[in-house]
């Protein structure tokens, strides 16, 4: 997981959570709750074992239960003794679950989303601290960008065996846990990222298609729009050619349909001459 600054949280609770996250565990004594209200004193503590190495997190049951998925999981633990309530998430990445848990407690996750009302523009908070990844994942080199990968923007996904855009992973986890507002946060934050290479974008797009239903009209559409908007880069990419030749994903048919719709829209406003060819 990332070492986090919580620069805007200067209260003691924010400082305690900062120290706890650096140690890799969120505990009942170090976790402020969403909206600033303290968790119920009698709220049970649940241990969550995350990832292939079963990294341990701890959280209040009433905070976890803001997620329908966790509410059901906690109900299944109802008869367990207080110190034995445990949920296992072997397929989640600790860096991603940390963001989910931070959102459940604080209403956002690092880096926070900032809104400039005067310009009606969104941005991500700045952070000048060392962004060391505290996990057993393969490490990026010491610079924040290596081979087009931004250490703030990506997480090593063990199931894929490579780096995936962090906000895509958070979006998919939020979908699984029934947190639509977190999905919106993740999608908006991903739209603010830059400097990501084609290979990472395509891996992340495939992951998105593999972990969202066909009815998803947000994350999937985000990738289609990104490829169309940056088509000059993608059409020159050998990685894009290889991925399309390999196929095996609904994404490429959706991309074809989106491109056709884009051309149709341009044709309607007279920017593209009509074709003289017909298909029988």
From TrEMBL:
Record InterPro entries: BTB/POZ_dom (IPR000210), SKP1/BTB/POZ_sf (IPR011333)
Segments forming domain BTB: 44-108
Cited Gene3D superfamilies: Potassium Channel Kv1.1, Chain A (3.30.710.10)
PROSITE patterns referenced in this protein's UniProt entry, alphabetically: BTB (PS50097)
SUPFAM superfamilies given in the database record: POZ domain (SSF54695)
Protein name as catalogued: BTB domain-containing protein
Upper classification of the organism: Eukaryota, Fungi, Dikarya, Ascomycota, Pezizomycotina
